[in-house]
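[Archive record]
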Amino acid sequence: MSEAQITDWLASQRQAMIDLLRDVVNIDSGSYDKDGVDAVGARFERHFAEHGIPFRRENNATFGDAIHAEVAKPGSNERPVLLMGHRDTVFGKGEAARRPFTISDGRAYGPGVADMKAGLVMNVFVATAFHKFGGNPHPIKVLITSDEEIASPSSRPVIEREGRAARAVFNSEPGRPTGNVVTGRKGGIFMHVAITGKAAHSGANFAAGVSAIGELAHKVVQIHALTDLDKGITLNVGLVSGGQSVNTTAPYAEGQIDLRYVDPADRARVMAAIEAIIATSYVPGTSATLAIKGEFVPVVQSAESKALFENYQAAARQAGLTTLQGEFSGGCADSGFTAAVGAPTICGLGPVGGLAHTPEEYLELDSIVPRAQALALAILKG
């Protein structure tokens, strides 16, 4: 096996990669759509079966199943390299029919085309190249998860388990629009606050009412005031609802809170401040509860992760990506879970795209082959 066999074969598979990408983009796979998410998984399983790569499903009753595949290194009991990614999207049923996979001016469009079905296609083709030609210095594991867009409630323990067992983790979220990869990410916590007040006729019996909406308004102002842009801490109450009618003091209100932070030490401090705000009744007679609905942890670059990035950067230069750098992202990803359990991790290795989570999401098709070659060469250099 030579490096050229791997990289040349990947170059020859450009159209096959696009064809597989078309297939999986044209299947709806919103995070809560287990049938759709598993249908995307079945398409990847078909690829593994066609190429003789062993795979298995780790079943989940509520969310999509986790899919595992492995390219072994004969006679080796070494820790594997983990190629990771998620197949769920933020889009609901019917989105793929409304705007199916299309290509225009060198870009591909469709729900999840960049975030992150293209990265999964890249991962499975890189694994297939090593299965076909050999030469991988370590075993390669492919993990395809199902619920990253909602903070991986079912996949997190799977990801942490596989991360602890891995020698290195490559998470193929989309490459940045700059062409860079991601070497650091914020942590994020998604919360729900529920407030109880007391209903009363707002004209005839106003004084008897206790407004849950009024209380929520006070809390929103206090929560937003915890934002500290210099430290990378942001608070956003992105959804609010409540009330019974315009002429009734609101007996109930709720809000959803998004916290992002950089330094793991800031988590406890900010959460304590939020909990104090929730426990305080600014409008006498109200009560409130707070629940964490989902959580990501930060990607903090360790010395081992820095070395992994430098190895990848050298491989990327060899693949023609001469200006590639690492950059920080305010978005969260599953890579935080593997970084937190000590696995050297880099993220954003997938083909380059942008405008994720919008109808304008796009993928640069000419980035598919060089990004696949860079990942393969990084594995070879590992």
Q: What stands out?
A: The chain has two domains: 1-186+298-381, 187-296. The chain is about 35% helix and 25% strand.
